[in-house]
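Long-time lurker. I teach an intro course on protein structure, and each term I like to show students one example going from raw sequence to a predicted 3D structure in token notation. This year I'd like something fresh instead of my usual example. Would anyone be willing to generate the tokens for the chain below so I can use it in lecture? Attribution to the forum is fine with me.
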Amino acid sequence: MSQRHPLSWREPWPLVQALAAALGSEGLVWLDGDGSPQGRCSRLGLAPLEQRVCRGLPGQAGAEDPFAELAALAEGGGHWMGWLSYEAGAWVEPASHWHHPDMALLWAARHDPVLVIDHEAREQWLEGEDPTRLAAFATLLAGLDLDGAGTHTPADPPQAAIPPTAWHWHTPPERFAEQVAQILSWIAAGDLFQANLTACCEHQLEGAADPLALYGRLRRACAAPFGGLAIAGAAAAGEAVLSASPERFLRVDGAGLVETRPIKGTRPRHRDPEADADAAADLVCSPKDRAENVMIVDLLRNDLGRVCVPGSIQVPQLVGLESYRQVHHLTSVVQGQLRNGLTAIDLLRACWPGGSITGAPKIRACERLHGLEPVPRGPYCGSLFRLGSDGSFDSSILIRSLLLRGQRLRAHAGCGIVADSDPGGEAEELGWKLQPLLEALA
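-- Reply from a regular --
Happy to contribute to a lecture. Here you go:
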């Protein structure tokens, strides 16, 4: 049975730095909220008790079904956190339209205890099932010197800055616009209704990577309600996910209430209040962005309908404006009640990959996108997740995210394409989304 040990409040970033210095960052997972209503609480796990890794696609030697592995973890109990990659969709819809992932398809770690941070109430506590470990972590936390050696401030991280010109683009803006035009031709022919096209750039770091320092820059510049950091250990050592995502994928509480919060529609923020208000109004009044959002809501209602009680699916918020530090978004909320006998992993499999980062029809969109995107998405467009010992589940859509593999760092972003999309405008929107990430590291 889980126990709670209350702690005195200390600022999260110095606290995480000090804990990583004391316990090591390998296996660290930080599901990092921004203090907003959706990002009220953060959860941090270090020094995991065990880890699980799945790699490979169906039919490949040694490949393992990540959904079956997650189901086994859920049945075994404990508090698990980690990532699931976009290409896990090959285990839902086996076909040739999936890139071979070059990062772990699933990486998950079991932590006991977990540090919980309530940003709004300014409260912190440990949650754990092993009283001995709970007491040991509490003693460690009480003795931490947050001003001592082994920590660094987010204003002066040891990781070298990355100039914007140092990034290599796999899909330059002009090529992205051409790909948008190709998708528009498929939409005109009735082959698709919508597709979420993505692009990425990468940089080869000099020297050893410091994912915690990189994430410190990212969270300072791009705080988000579903941000987070996962630094893999064991069989996935050298891999890490750094995210500033504003989008929840799926949440299931202990009573089986399901929620998803798809985002479609984006405008950049402006320092001038009048210009900023105009941008928000333009987004709210845009027929193109509203249609894109509603289309994905319909897709997700269908996905949830596979595993939810008939008649339970509701849309309490349709195309609502939500504003973040760098951008305005249109967000909808879809809810349902999970059927008796089904679990969060059944829900995850029924909805994977997320509708907001694929398109409609989903399978056809995945096929077409595979032919346009030159590299695997990996954890990008996948999910950072938390699986509780009580059957609860929460997860993000990994947009606005950086992927680290060894010394290779990738930044990804994407745009939803519908019939009245403008190729040049979509390429510009891609820049709005990637620019804050690149500037944070510069």
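Some talking points for your students: The longest strand covers residues 194-204. The two ends are 46 Å apart (CA to CA).
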